[in-house]
Specification:
Shape: globular
Structural class: alpha/beta
Number of domains: 1
Number of strands: 7
Order of helices and strands: HHEHEHEEHEHHEHHE
CATH superfamily: Vaccinia Virus protein VP39
Number of helices: 9
Largest sheet: 7 strands, mixed
Strand order of the largest sheet: 3-2-1-4-5-7-6
Strand content: 15-25%
CATH topology: Rossmann fold
Low-confidence stretches: 197-208
Mean pLDDT: 88
Distance between the termini: 26 Å
Helix content: 25-40%
CATH class: Alpha Beta
Length: 244
Amino acid sequence: MKLEKKAYAVMFEKEDEHWWFVGRRKVLGALLDGIGLGDGCRILDVGCGTGGNLPFLSLYGEVEGCDYSEEAVRFCRLRGHQRVMEASVYDLPYPDSSFDLVTCLDVIEHLRLDLPALLEMKRVLKPGGYLLLTLPGRPELYSDFDCLAGHLRRYTPGEARRLLGAAGMRPLRITSYTVLVQPLIRYYIRRGNFVGGRGLCTQGMETIFPSTQAVLRFLLRLESLLLRRLDLRGGSSLAILARK
């Protein structure tokens, strides 16, 4: 799914500093730090958007990106990332067993067919390679915000586990996050002032209450510390680590 052009501009502007993107990277680090990725690992970020996660992922190996949108790829190159190409998640232009880690962050929920996308990502993973996903959770929270963001669905942990099983992937971690920030998220979603996920409603929380940025970043940093010890429940998002 391609977003409106202005959505990529908002993402490009915000994803280095906005609490959603900064906090999500903290959460992802909590899942990745324990799996032993090292020098020489090849990483592919599928649906890389405007490239804000590529510097973070480069801490774990040699990173490449792809996105269905030409506009997204253009913004990646404005950031200085050259190893990015335009491609469909259903037809990745890479040989079988190419990557040690494939990430796909808040993308699957935009796709009409999620299983074929996972099968294609599995194809380009090396045997024993890792898949890292983030998805919107708690289907009962589906709202007008999800429609604006282009979400076709939200997932329960059980649905995510069954999807991974159908793709032949072994789940290692399926955890919620954004648990501690739920009251503020729900408040701002109701007001229509939420920036999060690839849909990017274009009015951010900071336009209403600037200090929420620091509070939300702190709460997600705290969640990331908890995630180094245990899985969480009740958040509006899921983080998933699986292995081929």
